[in-house]
């Protein structure tokens, strides 16, 4: 039977994700407003159901006698992907393998070597096992943070991007929720384009306001709280994200 974590479980996962080593059951209990025994029982249950799969140290291998960390992006036959992932883990130096749901570049393998010669040895062993190495990259640094949706509600940072989907041909349809302080709030679509907030290649395809769908045109005004759907033929421009979710402008720039 599938176990579905509730709000208490998610909060426990959040605090463990922040720093499992230095976070005790009493500390989590105080944050979640339950007893330490409840936290321990919940953690045991999460482990039993395979939701917590382990606790790992965050190691800087470069600071450990100058080790070299390399990420191999690889392709494995789909039917053999899991078997090759397990075989890759048995290769001395490999510390992490991630399987991706894809036909190409479906294995990401991280390895640590003494030097480039050692990294070449690992690459040769992976190739001999039947993995096709598409790309090798030196890892400079890596950071982690817990999943924000598991955080207390007051700590969850809102995002202007509500949803997106990829369109055949490579474009994307993205939904933005207009914030009170967004640069685009209060502007018509024509004015937003003239100010450089809406690039020429971006098409606003729909606006939902108070449960009503609006078919936009150049004179349509964007208001705080609007759910705006836009089509981008390529990667979403950063200026567009900033236009919908920005810091307040100086008073002399306000509309």
From TrEMBL:
One of its GO terms (molecular function) is sequence-specific DNA binding. The keyword Transport does not apply. SUPFAM superfamilies: TrkA C-terminal domain-like, Winged helix' DNA-binding domain. It comes from the Archaea. One of its GO terms (cellular component) is cytosol. The keyword Transport does not apply. This is Winged helix-turn-helix transcriptional regulator. It comes from Haloplanus rallus.
């Amino acid at each position: 039977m599938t176990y579905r974590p509730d709000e208490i479980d998610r909060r426990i996962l959040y605090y463990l994700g922040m720093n499992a080593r230095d976070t005790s059951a009493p500390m989590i209990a105080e944050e979640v407003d339950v007893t330490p025994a409840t936290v321990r029982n919940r953690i045991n249950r999460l482990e039993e159901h395979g939701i917590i799969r382990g606790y790992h140290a965050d190691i800087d291998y470069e600071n450990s006698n100058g080790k070299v960390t390399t990420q191999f992006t690889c392709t494995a036959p789909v039917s053999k992907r899991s078997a090759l992932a397990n075989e890759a883990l048995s290769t001395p130096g490999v510390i992490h393998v991630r399987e991706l749901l894809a036909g190409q570049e479906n294995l990401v393998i991280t390895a640590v070597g003494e030097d480039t010669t050692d990294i070449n040895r690992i690459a040769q062993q992976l190739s001999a096992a039947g993995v096709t190495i598409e790309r090798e990259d030196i890892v400079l640094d890596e950071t982690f943070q817990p999943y924000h949706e598991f955080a207390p509600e007051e700590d969850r940072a809102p995002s202007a991007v509500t949803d997106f989907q990829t369109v055949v041909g490579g474009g994307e349809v993205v939904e933005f929720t207009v914030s009170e302080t967004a640069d685009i709030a209060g502007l018509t679509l024509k004015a937003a384009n003239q100010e450089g907030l809406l690039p020429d290649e971006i098409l606003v395809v729909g606006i939902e306001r108070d449960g009503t769908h609006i078919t936009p045109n150049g004179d349509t005004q964007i208001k705080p709280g609007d759910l705006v759907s836009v089509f981008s033929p390529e990667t979403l421009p950063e200026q567009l994200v900033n236009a919908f979710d920005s810091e307040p402008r100086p008073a002399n720039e306000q509309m």
